Structure formats: C-alpha cells, structure tokens
Amino acid sequence: MTASKRQQIVAGNWKQNGNLALLNSVLAGLEAAALQTVKAVVCPPFPYLLAATNNPGVAIGAQDVGVRDQGAHTGDVAAAMLAEVGCRYVIVGHSERRQQHAESDQTVALKASNAVQAGLLPIVCFGEPEAVRDAGQLYTYLRSQLEPVFAQLGSQGLQGAVLAYEPIWAIGTGKNASPAQAQQVHKYVRDLLAETHPEVAANISIIYGGSVKPANARELFSQDDIDGGLIGGASLQVESFVAICQAAE
Ligand code: PGA
To answer: For the purposes of burial, counting CB atoms within 10 Å of the CB of 156, is it exposed (0-12), middle (13-18) or buried (19 or more)?
Structure first.
C-alpha cells in the first residue's frame, strides 16, 4: 500500500497487439485477483473495446480518440462513440502517436478536451526524448507539453484526468527511469499544476510508464508522487499485469 490517498491506477496499453483470447484471459485474471484499492484499466485496440466493456468488472480505455466530432473523417473515432460502447478512459498524446502521427501539443490538448466533453477520463501522456534530458532541457520541454493541456481542460476538465509521465528513452527499452528520477518529475508536474490549478494538483493521479515490470513496480509506485503506472509490454501477459496491479495496492 502506498502512502498517498490518491487513486492508484494501473493501465495496460496494449498498443497494436493482442487478440480476443488475450482479452478474455486478462479480464478473467483481473477478476480472480479481486483488487481492492487500485483501479486497473485495460486499453486494447479499438476492435476489442465492445467485447471488453461487456465485462463490467474492469475499467476499459481506448488508446486514442479523434480530434473532431463525428463527420467525414475516415478512420477516426469520436469520443462520444467510445463513451457509448462503455469506455471510461482514453489515452491521449502517447509518444508513439506524437511521433508516428505528428500529433502536436495542441492536438493532444484538443483530444483530451474532446474526451472530457464526452464524459471520458483522459490519460494524458507526456515525456522527453533522451537528448532533451541530456541537453538540460527536461523541464522546459515537459512544461511546453503540459501547459496547453492544463489550459484547455481547466480545473473542471482536470478532475479525474490522469497524467502519465513516460520518458521516451524508457519505453519498450527495458531501461526504466529510476524511482528517484521519476519521483522528481512527478513532483515537478504536481507543483507546475499547482501554479495554475491548485485545487486539482494535490489529488490528480500522476502515473509512470516506461519499462514497468513486476520486479520494479513496487519501488516505483511507493514514491510519494507516483500514483500507479501505464504498462506496455508487461500488460500483454496476464501474470505480469496482475502482479503490477497488485504492487499498487
Ligand atoms: P513499456 O511501454 O511498458 O513497454 O515500456 C509503456 C508505454 O508505452 O505505455
């Protein structure tokens, strides 16, 4: 059990992986684990969302949402559609979307806002490339990613939103940020949010992502300002995902 009273959240980001069989075994594994305090969120690819939300025991999230409302936007998915099929969360601004689909900070902020308008809780990802950290630009970079989101959502939109710090150099590399490195950034972000939205800063869940495994989860999650994790590779195995959820209890 971590010291903080904030909601602990562990979200599995499947990316473009998995199938119905994995979905069924992850949902069954989570049900059997009977988690008490941590909120487990499963974020499979779009085609599996409806099958996932038919199992009411686990919170389900999408991995992305369109930037516009419904209309002539082939391939896009509106926030209201995700809400209608029972999603509770949606990941926005993952570094893979920012890099592979050229999503700007403003686009990410708009997506987060669309999610909120539809009654979804956005999981807003941010994080630096290694070169930015090496150049001593870490905090300037993170600030420029986050300030548009804070401004767009406002205090009301930030209620229930989740911030996910994912240093790009730690994603899928097996090289996680150390608990101290991650804690330092999470504290910085909470303080930054407190400058403009003091009423939400203390309670917002800030989760860490980047090579979280059962072996390092507990130490990461025990840091004061780390309120759970966003899990990629290790969310694709039932035992490891459940073990990581349990580490946040
Ligand atoms: P990883 O991915 O756990 O495989 O490093 C995390 C993420 O990209 O959300």
So the answer is: exposed
Q: Collect contacts of 72-75 with beta carbons under 8 A, ≥24 apart.
A: none
Query: Does residue 61 line the site of ligand 1, with CB under 6 A?
Result: no
Q: 């400058």: which residue's tokens?
A: 195
How many CA atoms lie less than 13 Å away from 202 in the CB half-sphere?
3
Please say if 96 is a catalytic residue.
Answer: no
Taking the centre of ligand 1 as the mean of its atom positions, its distance from the CA of residue 61, in whole angstroms, is: 15
**Smallest CA separation from ligand 1 atom 7, residue:** 232
pLDDT digits (tens, 9 = 90+) for 199-240: 999 999 999 999 999 999 999 999 999 999 999 999 999 999
CA 233 to chain centre: 14
- Residue-wise pLDDT for 158-175, tens only, equals 999 999 999 999 999 999
